[in-house]
Sequence to fold (557 residues):
Amino acid sequence: MSKEENIKNELVNKFAYLGGNINVPRPRRIFLEATQENFKEVFVYIAKQLKFSHLCTITGLDEGEKLSFIYHMADDSGILLNFKISVLKENPVLKTVTDCFPGAEIYERELVDLLGAKVEGLPEGNRYPLTDDWPLDQFPLRKDWKGANNA
Amino acid sequence: MHNSKKFKIPVGPQHPALKEPESFSIALKGEKIMGVDIRLGYNHRGIEKGCEERSYIQAVYLVERICGICSHSHSTCFVQAVEEIAGLQVPLRALYIRTLVGELERVHSHLLWLGVAGHEIGFDTLLMYSWRDREVVMDLLSQLTGNRVNYGINTLGGVRRDISKEEVEDILKGVGILEERTKYYIDLALTETTIIKRLSGVGVLSYDDTLRLDAVGPTARASGVARDVRKDDPYAAYSEIAVNVITDTHCDVYGRTIVRVKELMESFKMIRQLLKNLPDGPIAVKAPRQIPAGEALSRYEAPRGEDVHYVKANGTEKPERVKVRAPTLANVQAVKHMLKDRFLADMPIVVAAIDPCFSCTDRLISINDKETINWQALHAYSIEWYKHQGIDFSAINKKFRDNFKG
Fold:
């Protein structure tokens, strides 16, 4: 059995609710989805126990009524695990992962600025990447955003 | 100034050392840096959003313009993701050409960095030497692709230009010259006191901190972390050739210098392998205008480290989402750590040592009264100009030319 399949089985054995939510579309790629409530325990397990110790980046997506976030994590053998969670757009609250990956700070700020995510536990700091005078209710990567001047 | 007081000085966004805008707010106590606050985003151009409003093929050219130095890295990373979603079987010859241009790009980027590093430590001779040598690879890139930067060689499903037998010969000749020069740079890095003393112990990033802060590329490899996408997650033609990952355990700017100059030699080896085994066949397959719904994540080892592109397709002619993470963003957190408790005077070289990306679109050929001056004419002109100033470079120039030919 491939290493990717082993990882998939290990995750399903540990967290039964993940069954059916894990895909291995090609060698070295795993796609996985969890709910907001289960996010942190699965995330910590993947980072610490499964040794996916490199967080490449976090992608934010506008999917209509929901905002989704994909955490792209790599291990030393080149396998990339894409861990997705979705939250309601009305209250897009996420838990920070800077406790596991201090380098994630800038990726989370990007989600705050461009998609309007609220990241619980993210330390105070400069905005990224928008300017300090950018309106706080304008999120350029949302699909319904038409430009600050036309809103 | 009273030593017990901390005060903050702003450096940037019009930066004294770097050619791109970023702002550092540095808390100092005497000459010592107590903390660094970095503000980025001055160059945010909305390219990700721009891609959503363009067709896939237009997006290839847009992402190529993310960076002036590693433009090929971004376009390759992007087309790989789209090709994966569309299920395109890219011909092997195209993958070889992509990899070849990628390695030539790395050579030009590392030589450029070496010059910048030399300049930041007041060793401008090194800047002059390495940037002169860099012209060899710039000319090759120009010959192969038609451009010195933003090569436009990639397209969905393959590459846009084939390479001829004569071009293969020219590349081998150029690589031969650069290999000799790189041996000199390696010798310089390992023995030259100015470099060793100025760079050792500066910008320290330990092995553990590298892992903790998720640094990438030569910055990580110089701290003993053997992370290289070409080896770990091979793309293009890297699974067909031998990839040797260079690491170093100095964990400082000196280590980063050694890693980069040694990586130049590895690039030359890879270029030779690619040219030796270059398969025959087509250079592209036809890509559909509409890409079926799906998602893919592509990684690429750019000269500065891991480049990441995520693409989501929705079945139309335009991507649903394109996400880009360039290597410098991954290394920024590490810079904060490297500067802490160091002297202010170390700041330019520490920042430059992660090789932050800045645009380079200069050409050595200038247009004067609609007449083009080529390199030889410009060179002869510069020697004449200095003669008028009372300085004669003819003898030293002849000596250099003879050495270069040898």
Chain B touches chain A through 38 residues (CB under 8 Å).
